[in-house]
Each structure stands twice: as structure tokens, then as C-alpha cells.
Amino acid sequence: MASTTILVTGASSGIGAALAKVYATRATNLVLWGRDAERLAQTARVCRNLGSAVQTLQFDLRNIGEIAGHIRNFDAEWPIDIAILNAGLGGAASVDHAAECAERSSDVATVNFTASVVGANAVAECMATRGRGHIVLMGSVADTVPLPMAPTYSGSKAGLKMFAESLAIRLEHHGIRVTIVSPGFVDTAMSRQVHAPKPFMISAEDAAAIVKRRLEKRGRRIVLPWPYGILTIAFRWLPGPFRRTVLRAMPRG
Ligand SMILES: NC(=O)c1ccc[n+]([C@@H]2O[C@H](COP(=O)([O-])OP(=O)(O)OC[C@H]3O[C@@H](n4cnc5c(N)ncnc54)[C@H](OP(=O)(O)O)[C@@H]3O)[C@@H](O)[C@H]2O)c1
């Protein structure tokens, strides 16, 4: 049986680790990227035990200039069929400051937006030579709801959503699909830093299973869990003044 090669960034934790495990079978080669060596090795170990061939890369995505080269090198050895650009950085501002920490906002924008965009463009060129592939970008419901507690996070995810929609149209003639995944709360290290109600929160394992199932159905935008699909549509339809009233009631940090 031919193997499917899947790249997952942010595979050392949370949703990325759960996605790697849910795709780990004898029919898949996994290319797993992460920053924390020990947690990345742990995900790789579980995936190998489930039958996958696994290569890992311990890499800080803020080294933007190296991303395309790493993608091309892995693709030359194991042509990538599905690229899940999942790595991300949360960023809640402190209530004690007017805005966000400038240095932190640079990291959030770089990891969430720039690294994913560079990775997607690099892997798209490789996939285009084969006339097939699937690029999956990890957004958030914050791509639709501008969170006052995390403006850079919301902006980076909204930018990614727009990028995904543009890229999807551009690449359809090359046989490449592009999907944006927009989760609500998922129980991971990132969401555990949020000290506010987390309605409809699901586990990373449930999130990964939903994403895999919906990707197989060729979804272009996957909002999960399902109540957030309804909430984001309702939010978009709210008149501007009501929308701002809802946003003002949200926590600032
Ligand atoms: N959890 C939620 O409620 C939620 C909701 C909406 C969207 N999301 C999105 O889902 C994705 C995964 O987040 P998560 O919830 O699974 O959070 P997580 O458990 O904190 O995992 C984040 C992953 O991104 C990696 N990462 C962060 N900064 C990096 C950097 N500079 N270089 C390389 N890798 C880096 C982390 O690597 P290390 O751990 O090795 O540093 C980790 O593997 C993110 O894009 C996030 O925005 C999450």
C-alpha cells in the first residue's frame, strides 16, 4: 500500500500532538516539527508504536528564513501529501497595560501568521509539481471574533483565514486543496493559560478526530466544536453597535 506523507508543525503539544497520533498508522509517513525536543520525541515514539515511519525536526519557527529549505529537504525524501501548519502561540495581553507587550506581539504574529504563510507557499510549490496535495492552516474562532484580550492573536488568525481563502482559489488549478481550521476552546497548554469561562471546550484528541474526519470530507473551513460554527455566523450577522457591545463585555486580559 502506498504511504501518505503528512507534515504536522507544533507536534510537540496539544492539538498538533493529537493530530500526529490520529494519523499514525502503517500507511503514513509523519514529518513532525516542534520546538521542545523531549515532548516532540514523545509524540514521535507514540506514532512509531502505532506503525508510522516518523522523522522529526526540532526547530524554532521564528527562524523564518530556514522554513522553506526544511520543507524542500523533507519533500525531496518523502513527498508531502498533507501539510498541517498547526503551530501557534497564544497571546493574552496583561490587564495592567494599555496594549500588548511589543516583543511578545512580534513572536505571536511571526509564529501564527508569517511562519504558516511561508510554510504553505513553500510546500505548495512542491505539491504543484505533482498536481496534488492538501494544505491545512490552523486558525481560530478568533479569526472572526476580534478578542480585546488578544488583538495580535486575533489579527494573525484573521490574516491566516484570508490567506487560506486566497491561496485556495489560486491553487485549485494545480490540484491542491487548502483548508482553514478554526477551533473554539480546546483543552491544551495554550487554553489553560486563559482564566475565563471556556464554553463548549473539547479535548485535543476529540478536536483531532473531528479535523481528520472533516478533512476527509474535503471541508474548506472547519469550525469546531459545532456550536462555534453557529456562534461565529451569528456574530458576523450582528449589527456593528451590538457586536461592539458584546466585545466590550469580554475580558481584557
Ligand atoms: N487550544 C485552543 O483552545 C485553541 C483554539 C483555537 C486555535 N488554536 C490553535 O491551535 C494550534 C495549536 O495550539 P494548541 O492549543 O495545541 O497549543 P499548544 O499545546 O501550546 O501547542 C502549540 C504548538 O506550537 C508550537 N510552537 C509555538 N511556538 C513555536 C515556535 N516559535 N517554533 C516552533 N514551534 C512553536 C509549540 O511547540 P513547543 O511546545 O515545542 O514549544 C507546540 O507544539 C495553534 O495554532 C493555536 O492558535 C488553539
If you had to describe this structure to a student in words, what would you say it looks like?
The N and C termini lie far apart (50 Å). The model has no long low-confidence stretch (mean pLDDT 94). The chain has a single domain (4-248), classed as NAD(P)-binding Rossmann-like Domain (Rossmann fold, 3-Layer(aba) Sandwich), CATH 3.40.50.720. 48% of the residues lie in helices and 17% in strands. It is globular. The protein has helices spanning 14-23, 37-49, 67-77, 102-130, 151-171, 189-192, 204-216, 226-237, 240-248, and strands at residues 4-8, 28-34, 53-58, 82-85, 133-138, 176-183, 186-187, 202-203, 221-224. Helix 1 crosses helix 7 (204-216), helix 3 packs parallel to helix 4 and helix 4 packs parallel to helix 5. The protein is built from nine helices and nine strands. The protein is α/β, with parallel strands linked by helices and 253 residues long. The protein has a seven-stranded parallel sheet with strand order 3-2-1-4-5-6-9, sandwiched between helices. The protein has a two-stranded parallel sheet with strand order 7-8. Strand 2 (28-34), helix 2 and strand 3 (53-58) form a beta-alpha-beta unit. The structure holds NADP nicotinamide-adenine-dinucleotide phosphate.
CATH class: Alpha Beta
The average pLDDT score comes to 94
Main beta-sheet strand count, sense and barrel state: 7 strands, parallel
Total domains, how many? Answer: 1
Strands, total number: 9
- What is the correct CATH architecture? 3-Layer(aba) Sandwich
Assign the CATH superfamily: NAD(P)-binding Rossmann-like Domain
Order of helices and strands: EHEHEHEHEHEEHEHEHH
First-to-last CA distance: 50 Å
Structural class call reads alpha/beta
How do the strands line up in the largest sheet? 3-2-1-4-5-6-9
